[in-house]
């Protein structure tokens, strides 16, 4: 857990972040991967291969934990995710297939491809991170208690984006229980995602989403690993535990925050970490000064060199990377 001193000074709240990018597999997904592999072995002791659909982080953690358990990881990921994650997966010895991004209703969707491949392999299991409670329980038993212990229980609120929703669900469920409902949990959602509306209106539909992308269920953002167009069992667990509110985060805000974190905090991070910190700044503005807010730094910038940290890519998206202190205005909400 680190204190984001510049962001705290700018917002008037104490903003703490769990440095999950320092885990051996480089993201919070190490926690989930270990639990998924233990679950797979418990369900099927003869298993040889574990299959998963992932934007990258879960695959990278699974590949390492699978190797340690003597298993092979077979990973399906959407082809629009940063190529360095696929390269890393292949280097780690996983079998990787990059598939075109399509809607979950399409059998070619990366999660459905992983499920079908597992069903056709007598020695394979589908890890199923989006739907299995094993995911959020891994955070309920580790991330949540660590936040409580590392803050000595002095935490007012947590805020984070959701991919599967496992982190938000596990952390929220634990902190609500241990604090007797004192800790409030908030979602921050990247542009184009509909989870914001799942929290604020109870529907998973975004009125601002372009019709074509909506039909294809595509989330239109440079942020990776977060934002969704459907409600998963893990996200529903977070809603059941109680989410107090939600914030939107545009790609430009995330981009500005990523540069703020580098230039002011010395932290070189990926897009979901930037989105999380935009959430922390917006939550600080809503709660007012003096509160303690916890978020997560999920992965580091080296997994995003071809996208978030690539000027040509950003220009093609119509985004402008911040070079002067004035452009940090959006960071402060
Ligand atoms: N950040 C990154 C980089 C991720 O890969 C993910 C998960 N796909 C998340 C954040 C969100 O975590 P969760 O799946 O627990 O919602």
Automatic annotation (TrEMBL):
- The membrane spanning regions, by residue number, are none
Example GO molecular function term? cysteine synthase activity
For biological process, the GO terms are: cysteine biosynthetic process from serine
Predominant location of this chain?
mitochondrion
| Gene3D superfamilies for the chain | 3.40.50.1100
Cofactors:
pyridoxal 5'-phosphate
Catalytic function, reaction form: O-acetyl-L-serine + hydrogen sulfide = L-cysteine + acetate
**What residue stretches are annotated with the Tryptophan synthase beta chain-like PALP domain?**
1-299
Which domain of life does the protein's organism represent?
A: Eukaryota
| Record EC number | 2.5.1.47
Localization in the cell: Mitochondrion outer membrane
Q: How does it sit in the membrane?
A: Single-pass membrane protein
- Matches recorded under PANTHER family: CYSTATHIONINE BETA-SYNTHASE
| Name the UniProt record assigns to this protein | cysteine synthase
